[in-house]
Amino acid sequence: xxEITMIIRRDKLPETKKALDDLGYPSxxxxxxxxxGRQRGALCAEMxxxxxxxxxxTAKLKPTPSTxxxxxxxxxxxxxxxKRMLTVVVPDDVVTTIVKSVIAVNRTGKAGDGKIxxxxxxxxxxxRTGETNGEAIT
Length: 138
Prior knowledge:
4 strands; 5 helices; alpha+beta; four-stranded antiparallel sheet; globular; 27% helix
């Protein structure tokens, strides 16, 4: 079994959920997260490419610590971009299929498209029924 952790753009969540559902893996955990990487906290990369460049600075996104810092002129502001983090646990043989599908849905070619991490899982247990491992993840 493997755990696939996907950090994606917020606007790509519905398409990603549909892609996973179409592959037969509708069960997942979703979290709202903030982070930065090569995107360096640029909020414009999260928005529609047709918006004017000047819009990036004045854009009003859902309040986050980063947008609060911008609005209140805090010193040494480190900007973090809001993202969505999805986690799924799947059998080893479908990891490549899922990763390829998620990449296809989320790739825009711009900084901020996201990251995917694959980690081994030693065991899984369904609390309600006592099922273990492969039975517990379906």
